[in-house]
Amino acid sequence: MNAPVYIVDGLRTPFLKARNQPGPFAASDLATIAGSALLARQPFLPAQLDEVILGCASPSPDEVNIGRVVALRMGCGRKVPGWTVMRNCASGMQALDSAIANIQAGRSQLVLAGGVDALSRAPLLFSDAMVRWLSGWYAAKGVGQRARLLARFRPAMLAPVIGIMKGLTDPVVGQLMGQTAENLAYRFGISRDDMDAFAARSHQRVAAARDAGHFDGELTPLIEDDGTLHRFDDGVRDDSSAEGLAKLKPFFDRRYGRVTAGNSSQITDGAAWLVLASEAAVKRFALTPRGRISDSQWAGLAPEQMGLGPVHAATPILERHSLGINDLDAWEINEAFAAQVLACLRAWADDAYCRDELGLAEALGRLDESRLNVDGGAIAQGHPVGASGARIVLHLLQVLERTGGRRGIAAICIGGGQGGAMLVERP
């Protein structure tokens, strides 16, 4: 990655918590609102983009290539290609990496890349038994065949299949993502108290950052048709405490588990975008870069241990740049689960893990948690799967700018047993 790829600007919507019904905005609405606001403050026209790349893990059936849908809705015109990428939780980060690849290959100079999901609108599905029955019903000829089909119908066949539960279940190992977090809690001896304390801190940090205006530069408001205004992430609980979270029951392993809804990320709707540019585009449009993505890495690991993905993706970046774990000014690790982030910290500090799983001579060390997710994370803000990878890169840049930091890493775990990481540097 020798040719520089600059971050010119970025913007996201507030993340809206799913509340057991379809949210007020479709995924394309969220991406269009954030993207239009971002493009409106640029010195170039939307039609001067070379391409639009959007990560989305759960597009609706009428927005399958949502990247193209949104590009057209934002006024980029017919000639600007728009396309969609999917790498589960890192779809937004994959969009950035795809933009980097095209810029460095010379195919693009100026790219709008990001991610979106409206998980509140994940579909309810018919069971296979109901689909087969309906197929027979539509193919039936005559009253006799339909009468026999009616006799075989059972009301239980109408029970819906919850689409998001299927999407959050690993098809290879048959475990929900929360069950993989339970695996890590057991492996590293992470207690329920540890998880709840981490989750409460996430809410406290987000609330403090919100009140201090630390999110103002990265948020554009959402307004519903009835005038309801959303200025901030609405899943944040200002009164969250470890004592309060301790009252919640385990969700994924109800008998022996430690992972609850309170120490897990929230099911959420939201979008995040970044404008990426080559050096030539910076000069052509007289842009002022805010930073650059100077390295990225993808890694694979066992699906049932997927939460350790940030360790496997970020470590090679540290090695390539001769960096220690605390040589970075800031870290953003997506908080899929409290257990998952805590497991990453313990893995880096464990000689045996670093030696056996990462091929290192010894442990990398203990990450200074005062540099980690300083403004909280997805446990409080939510995890719209397609958007989170772009959000953590954008917010990492915000943190570096605010604190005067020079460089940091954004890292994310990925369902299916993968990890992604990006090194962000300020000019």
Q: Which descriptors apply to this entry?
A:
single chain; 427 residues; alpha+beta; Peroxisomal Thiolase, Chain A, domain 1; 10-stranded mixed beta sheet; two-stranded antiparallel ribbon; 15 helices; 14 strands; 37% helix; 18% strand
Task: Describe the protein's architecture and organization.
This protein has 427 residues and is α+β, with helices and mostly antiparallel strands. The chain has a domain at 177-213 and 291-425: Thiolase/Chalcone synthase (Peroxisomal Thiolase, Chain A, domain 1). Helix content is 37%, strand content 18%. The strands form 3 sheets. Strands 1, 2, 3, 4, 5, 10, 11, 12, 13 and 14 form a 10-stranded mixed beta sheet that branches. It is globular. It starts with 5 loop residues before the first strand and ends with a strand.
